[in-house]
Amino acid sequence: xxxxxxxxxxxxxxxxxxxxxxxxxxxxxxxxxxxxxxxxxxxxxxxxxxxxxxxxxxxxxxxxxxxxxxxxxxxxxxxxxxxxxxxxxxxxxxxxxxxxxxxxxxxxxxxxxxxxxxxxxxxxxxxxxxxxxxxxxxxxxxxxxxxxxxxxxxxxxxxxxxxxxxxxxxxxxxxxxxxxxxxxxxxxxxxxxxxxxxxxxxxxxxxxxxxxxxxxxxxxxxxxxxxxxxxxxxxxxxxxxxxxxxxxxxxxxxxxxxxxxxxxxxxxxxxxxxxxxxxxxxxxxxxxxxxxxxxxxxxxxxxxxxxxxxxxxxxxxxxxxxxxxxxxxxxxxxxxxxxxxxxxxxxxxxxxxxxxxxxxxxxxxxxxxxxxxxxxxxxxxxxxxxxxxxxxxxxx
Amino acid sequence: xxxxxxxxxxxxxxxxxxxxxxxxxxxxxxxxxxxxxxxxxxxxxxxxxxxxxxxxxxxxxxxxxxxxxxxxxxxxxxxxxxxxxxxxxxxxxxxxxxxxxxxxxxxxxxxxxxxxxxxxxxxxxxxxxxxxxxxxxxxxxxxxxxxxxxxxxxxxxxxxxxxxxxxxxxx
Lengths: 396, 171
Prior knowledge:
The complex is a heterodimer.
Chain A: H1 11-32, H2 37-45, H3 50-71, H4 87-104, H5 108-116, H6 120-138, H7 140-147, H8 157-161, H9 165-190, H10 202-220, H11 224-231, H12 235-240, E1 244-246, H13 248-256, E2 262-266, H14 270-275, E3 281-283, H15 295-298, E4 304-308, H16 312-324, E5 330-333, H17 336-345, H18 347-350, H19 356-378
Helix pairs in contact in A: 1-5, 3-9, 3-10, 5-6, 13-19
Chain B: H1 9-27, H2 34-48, H3 50-55, H4 57-65, H5 74-92, H6 108-128, H7 133-142, H8 146-163, H9 167-170
Helix pairs in contact in B: 2-5, 2-6, 7-8
């Protein structure tokens, strides 16, 4: 699951990744014509809307792509950098940059791109940008209050507007497409071109088709998480699922012998977990199964993961979801924790002492009922699964 | 040799969008540019006036958020890549040339002053707005960040609003 940094791609390799991404970024910007200020500002005078076309196409492609990746459970959006919202500095900073755009003819990324192919005005612009940062840095005590005011956290626009993200992405795409048509009309008028024939070139059709396919699959195929949660509500699915069990006796035996392979994954509510929890157990929420980091616990090799909950049905549901997500070595506690506790605290009732096996079982359970409650009492709760990985720090 | 035509803007947009998706998937962050300018500035000041960076609030806050040299920064590596990538692209398409571009009515003097002032406005504004067209607007749009999209509208809205007053620079 993405993001691949920092666990799959280390922080040092990430610099190489940055370099490669930068090379592609620079090449695309240059090929698109972002290396000339005349083309860049054309947008604001109506004679060349290249910037708008490239920028918004990239924006909606990326928006839909990120949406699709998180939709299919390939990207943990909680670990991705979401630009924070500081309302006033965002607006005023943006306006200042807008002024800088028409005065300077570049933005920082494009100026570097233009300087790379020898544009002298771009090199001067970069010098100015360094001065601008310096000005901000030196005067920082004056701006700090304003800079940090109206901190709204990291909201995403569809949340702010109170709509679903698919709806937002669709509306945004429609607006962008209308803008593409609109600016073509303006551009032709400004440049005195009469003919206005819509051009259905292969490129356009291919691009539109790719976008449409991604968007449609996202609409048609349900989100991974909600579809799995729905799946386990089906009684037949639960009945027909082939799951490995662990009996209460085996679990007690493993706990008493301090089995290093054992990992108990406890799916009960946190309050119940605090009152009673087994050694070697970790509190898990259903959401944790879909998050990147908690899952590492489940992928440690040679571990036996026992899913526990109060009843067997809940355990089964979680185990089915986990095996659908591809986790191995998962077993469920037979009869659930209810049965386990019942057996632990009422030994007499359940054993048939007429044969040797029954007598052995009885002896084992007697020993367990003396030892286990102590172990449980001594056990300090491990608490919910730890999440040390934080959101990636990004931005400029 | 004549320079090659620019790429179809929608195709370039598609490629840029795909690159941005890959960037977010791999690194968990988007593209950026002004952050590299900031790193270079901080690094320069550190060399020229080490005492100053030690007792000025902005630099202290910066070194609190970043470890190691300010140049060992993701965006610095990315921008070095941009220079290489743009250079290769310019080489392939025959666009390598030292020249100062300006509007038909603008003098060199105006263009140079405009570039300095414009650059300064960007340097300042991108610090205030926490990112520029790449880091705030484009990457913000990809993750649907409210702040990023607000900044985007402010940049383009501002540019349209001010464009009339600077028309002599460009047309």
